[in-house]
Amino acid sequence: MERDVFPRVACLQMPLHQGDLAANLNELRKMLAAARFSADTLVVLPELWASGFDYANIGTLADQTPHVLAELQEKAAQSRIWFAGSLLERQETQESREISNSLFVVGPEGVIGRYQKQHLFRPWQEDRYLTAGKEAQAVQTPFGPIGALVCYDLRFPELSRRQVFAGARLLVVSAQWPRVRTDHWRILLQARAVENQAFVVACNGSGQVPGGELAGHSMIIDPSGRVLAEADAQPAVIRTELKGADLDAVRSRFCSVAERPWYGQNSDKVLEQQVLLERLRPLRAQGSRIVFTNGCFDLLHAGHVSYLEEARRCGDCLVIGLNSDRSVQALKGPSRPVNGEGPRARVLAALGCVDFVVLFDEDTPRRLITHLLPDILVKGADWSEEQIAGAAEVKAAGGRIERIAFTCPTSTTGIIDKIVASVCG
Asked: In the annotation, is 47 catalytic?
């Protein structure tokens, strides 16, 4: 019989000791020994349960994560159980050494998947010390795919929606949610269950941490929003059995998860400068970070798309300044652009990472940038900051400059040369 959901789930609501790896591991061992979980139980742990948000020692603590995962695997193998909970994870790349808040799924054979926290909580300075994840994919397990969220991610329903649409029937949440917002915790967890018609298993921490007192109240919720088990604020273990048939019964009446309509017209993203300013005003008022970059984007290719995705990750709203046909001709010569400004704008607007497209007619976007004053100005890493039009104005207004490397060797000129060579050949 195909297994589509873990038959048993539990939350290990631990007291958290900031920066004390040994104390947290001892809490885990003690609670596991007392709980004596049955085989094939998924045990969900709190956010950063082994370390807490000890930024002063974040690198040292992240380096201990492989040892923590090894112990989880050992415990999983001993009892034939599974774990899901977040830990600090060091990301080694050629350019940098970054640390993420990653939810690991660990079974008897070791780590089978991970999810990196997407939304970093600025009031706790996560964005200063941690790197946000770039993917929100479901984690594949022998019991079917599971969706994952880490604490603040709970407030962004599009994340769980994407994972459930891809087949997840169970959502796990690993959190350090504060007591002052306990009501939000309970409401949002039930909302995620109801809107996704999925089981939700959410484990919170317990006790006092430097950021305040944690709410506890770990919960297990069925696809109709009914609470199957809930802890109070004290350290606790809650558990229950799950039946895939209960989920099937909820979805048999109607299945809103299956519906994924496409809203609006992407051509609506292409705006005149004054209209764009009006659209940006409420975004600025609510604290959204406006990102700006510019280019000709003639014959849009994979290199452009990768660059624009990275630009979008720098903030909350991406504005593209697009060179007009006259501006492109001044820069590239009379044979360019290959595509006119209207088609180029329309294709850019169809990209999910792009929020607005605005044309400018000058040789550089300096006047447009000075008019918009984005929070983040993005340009390719091959440009020095002194060469970037509008950089001085953005920095004077309190913004910052981001230089992004092109990771794809494709170029519009190269594509044109290849086409010409093939025709002439």
From this structure: yes
Q: Give the tens place of pLDDT for each residue, 74-98.
A: 999 999 999 999 999 998 765 557 9
Prediction pTM value: 0.89
Mean pLDDT for the stretch of residues 194-207: 98
**Residue range 232-257: mean pLDDT, rounded:** 96
Query: Of 27, 47, 126, 310, which residue is the catalytic one?
Result: 47
Is residue 151 annotated as a catalytic residue, yes or no? yes
pLDDT of amino acid 150: 98
Cβ contact 54:18 at 8 Å: yes
The pLDDT value recorded for residue 134 is 87
Of the candidates 11, 151, 203, 314, the residue annotated as catalytic is 151
Mean pLDDT in the chain? 94
User: What residue has token string 């490397």?
Assistant: 405
Q: Which two tokens stand for residue 111?
A: 């780590």
In sequence order, the 6+-apart residues with CB closer than 8 A to the CB of 390 are: 364, 365, 366, 368, 369, 370, 377
Catalytic hit among 11, 75, 89, 117: 117
Is pLDDT of 423 > 60? yes
Q: Please report how many Cα atoms fall inside a 13 Å half-sphere around the Cα of residue 303, on the Cβ side.
A: 16
Cα–Cα nearest to 50, from 129, 112, 103, 9: 103
For residue 386, the number of C-alpha atoms closer than 13 Å in the C-beta half-sphere is 0
